[in-house]
């Protein structure tokens, strides 16, 4: 990891469960070459951590704001930024 790498922790709210949102995030992140994870939350939001080049993270944030067809994204909250080392991208169990 170098200084051009960015790691963001997100919470996405709206109609984001039961519409393929996690699969959308996983496919988009993989296509962009990002690492991290995504999971549903019991409060009906989706949580994700994505890591990669800053410009690519910006593209991912824009994709998260739009979501897949059938979703309605009301809010993408940046919970935090930090460090970590992820290998690939995974869908995690609901928390």
UniProtKB/TrEMBL annotation:
The keyword Repeat does not apply. Its EC number is 3.6.1.7. It comes from the Bacteria. The keyword Transmembrane does not apply. InterPro entries: Acylphosphatase, Acylphosphatase-like_dom, Acylphosphatase-like_dom_sf. Gene3D superfamilies: 3.30.70.100. It catalyses: an acyl phosphate + H2O = a carboxylate + phosphate + H(+). GO terms for molecular function: acylphosphatase activity. Keywords: Hydrolase. Pfam families: Acylphosphatase. The active site is at 22, 40. Residues 7-93 form the Acylphosphatase-like domain. Belongs to the acylphosphatase family. This is acylphosphatase.
């Amino acid at each position: 990891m170098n200084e051009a790498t960015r790691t963001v922790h997100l919470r996405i709210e709206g109609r984001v469960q039961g519409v393929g949102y996690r699969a959308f995030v996983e496919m988009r992140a993989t296509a962009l070459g990002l690492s991290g994870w995504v999971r549903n939350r019991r409060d009906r939001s989706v949580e994700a951590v994505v890591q990669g080049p800053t410009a690519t993270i910006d593209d991912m944030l824009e994709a998260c704001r739009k979501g897949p067809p059938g979703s309605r994204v009301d809010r993408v909250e940046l919970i935090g930024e930090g460090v970590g080392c992820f290998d690939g991208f995974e869908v995690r169990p609901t928390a």
